[in-house]
Write a structure and sequence with these properties.
single chain, two-stranded antiparallel ribbon, 535 residues, mainly alpha, 26 helices
């Protein structure tokens, strides 16, 4: 009886609100401005590209999520088909991105607080200095992380009620911003009257902005829906719909916000400074003040607190379930994944994540640095999805698939290529730095393998050589690639894209023929056996 009650807690509306609560965070507050600085008016194309990249990746995970509706599912799929090592690399990379999302939302809230214009709020100005969080600001960030954690600590019902309420506010304020800024200052001529004016810095920055301006980061939250798996009502229907609706709504909103930002700027400001020189501390709030809409700037300062707050709460839920799910890989201490009997939440995992989030933000104290770490680590984790879903079709054609992607044979390699390109767009040395952070988790893996007598370790390597080779390949490409992406320019743009596309397709194929039968595949059989398909 207790379990049936639990499965009914998250319906489709709440799921879409939870997805939007994760998707619409600090990205909309900073992304449009940062992307405009990098690519000029052509930044609007960057949002379309970012949406296509994440949408293509999500297509693979809808099939996986409906096949295995379980909490923290994103941490388990790769081990089902390729064994413990690939499962560990994928789940560790994904977990790093999630625990970094908690402090980045806290940093965004604190950064906007530091620019509050009111006399009574002067004490908040000490939170930031030269674009980084100060020690005083760090205490405020820690406070938010604790609050995010406590809101998840007691129950899923509290979480969904809170995020549904906050998501309505988070959608309403950006819509109001679009309407008011458009009415007060609309300069479509800012898009330019020629291709050169539309793309003042060429085509390469359009792709670069997709990753370095937080666009991929703004879209990648669809996995919040996947990770709630077993807590979703009718997962075989609602997982796909929840992801699709939340991605479409947020995508339209982001594109409208980018266009509004471009057309609301005064043409003489662009003429004087160029797009690179447009510098705002609180982009949309500053624009509202410039256009004389002071009440809107107040609302935006409030939303700059509320939007990251809602996203931070959502990601405490997602990251704790991911860490708890990693325990079943048998490479993390078991007590970490203990589920509280009364509230059904992984409380110890939440506390561990909160502590590590505080450590992460103590080292990386700027929004931009944290956004780069999140985007790249997430993309590396996502690379296993297309390989896993195709491998499962070969290994287990008899598995129940409530959602069966009709164009998956095309979408899987396409999404692998797009994820590879977006990883490359993060630019040298970010790509290599994130890969090194991911490799820091391997001592945990090998410690538990040693405790188990290295049983089946050889098979785990057989299923993972393709990923190890891929990480070496993408690291080298990041270093020797074109100057537009901070490389040594040994391979000029756009030929670097061609090399990455061809190389990615080879590694994708290698991955799909490297699947291995392990005890984890039997776990997948047991989970899938509980799925009942209804037309």
């Amino acid at each position: 009886m207790k379990n049936s009650k639990k499965t009914k807690k998250i319906g489709l509306f709440q799921l879409v609100m939870l997805g939007l609560g994760s998707l619409i965070g600090s990205g909309w507050l900073f992304g449009a401005w940062e992307a405009s600085q990098v690519a000029g008016p052509a930044a609007i194309i960057s949002w379309v590209i970012g949406g296509i990249v994440i949408g293509a990746i999500a297509y693979n995970y809808i099939e996986l999520g409906t096949m295995f509706p379980q909490s923290g599912g994103m941490s388990k799929y790769a081990q089902y088909t390729h064994g413990s090592l690939l499962g560990f690399i994928a789940s560790w990379a994904n977990w790093i991105s999630l625990i970094t999302l908690i402090p980045i939302e806290s940093v965004a809230a604190v950064q906007y607080m530091s620019s509050w214009p009111w006399s009574w709020a002067k004490w908040t100005q000490s939170f930031m200095a030269n674009g980084t969080i100060t020690n005083e600001g760090l205490l405020a960030v820690f406070f938010f992380i604790v609050v995010f954690t406590l809101l998840n600590y007691w129950s899923v019902e509290l979480l969904t009620n809170f995020t549904s309420l906050i998501s309505v506010f988070k959608i309403g304020v950006p819509l109001l911003t679009i309407i008011m800024l458009t009415l007060s200052g609309f300069h479509p001529g800012n898009y330019g009257s020629s291709l050169h004016e539309f793309m003042p810095y060429g085509t390469a920055p359009i792709f670069a902005a997709t990753t370095v301006s937080g666009i991929i980061f703004s879209f990648n939250a669809f996995q919040t829906v996947i990770n709630m798996g077993s807590e979703i009502e009718n997962p075989k229907r609602n997982i796909g719909r929840g992801i699709t609706y939340s991605l479409l709504i947020s995508g339209v909103l982001y594109i409208l916000l980018q266009s509004t930002f471009i057309t609301a700027l005064k043409p003489d400001m662009i003429a004087a400074n160029g797009w690179h020189g447009i510098n705002f501390a609180s982009p949309f709030a500053d624009l509202a003040i410039l256009l004389g809409i002071h009440w809107l700037s107040v609302l935006l300062y409030m939303d700059a607190f509320v939007s990251p707050f809602g996203t931070g709460v959502s990601f405490v839920a997602s990251s704790s379930r991911t860490l708890a799910a990693m325990v079943t890989n048998n490479h993390i201490p078991k007590f970490v994944g203990k589920i509280n009997d009364k509230y059904g939440t992984p409380r110890i995992a939440m506390v561990v994540n909160a502590i590590l989030s505080m450590l992460m933000v103590s080292i990386f104290r700027s929004w931009g640095t944290l956004a780069s770490v999140i985007s790249t680590s997430t993309l590396i984790a996502y690379l296993t999805g297309p390989v896993t879903v195709i491998s499962l079709r070969k290994m287990a054609p008899e598995f129940t698939r409530p959602f069966r992607g009709k164009i998956l044979k095309f979408m899987a390699p396409l999404s692998f290529v797009l994820a590879s390109l977006a990883t490359y767009w993060a630019m040298w040395p970010t790509t290599v730095e994130v890969i090194l952070v991911i490799l820091l988790g391997l001592p945990f893996y090998f410690y538990y393998e040693w405790r188990n007598g290295f049983n089946k370790t050889k098979r785990a390597f057989e299923g993972s050589f393709w990923m190890i080779g891929y990480l070496i390949f993408i690291s080298i490409m990041s270093y020797i690639g074109s100057k537009e992406f901070n490389g040594q320019n040994w391979i000029h743009y756009p030929f670097d894209f061609v090399v990455i596309i061809v190389g990615s397709l080879l590694f994708y194929h290698w991955g799909t023929v490297s699947h291995v039968m392990t005890k984890y595949f039997k776990q997948a059989q047991r989970v899938n056996a509980k799925v009942k398909f209804k037309k």
